[in-house]
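dumping this here before i forget
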Amino acid sequence: MLNLLASVVELTEPEGKHIIVNPTGPMVMSALYLFLLILPIIFILLFFFYKKKLQNQQILAAIEKGLPVTDLLETSKKRETGWIANISAGIGFLFVATALAVVYYVGGFYKADKDLAMILLVISIIFAGIGLTRLLRGLFQKANSKNTPTKNNNTVDAKVDN
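structure:
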């Protein structure tokens, strides 16, 4: 049995009754798992909060300097950066899937606990599928952006009057 937080305590009462006390019982472990599930959501919310806060600080600094704010308010992403984000996310998901598979194999979960082994294996397969999908999507976007000609906004089409 893998105890993460504390060890199992064995007690013997005066009547001879043998009691095993497990401080890492289901309530403590449930709270830990719930916290670990909520933690990524908290990190994502904090990231977007501080990102928006930084954007607001940049806007206020531009207003104080008298610069135009319209450049800072544009949030449209270029087409070229979409494939980079997809490829990066795909590689990241594949790394996570590989790490979970290594934890599955090295931790010996496939021998000890069949339920935990199946959960880790299914989660690893799901992350691998998401990573492969994002990676292929990014590669296809990259190939498509190279094939389609981009319009250059700096050129001016001149009309010739006859």
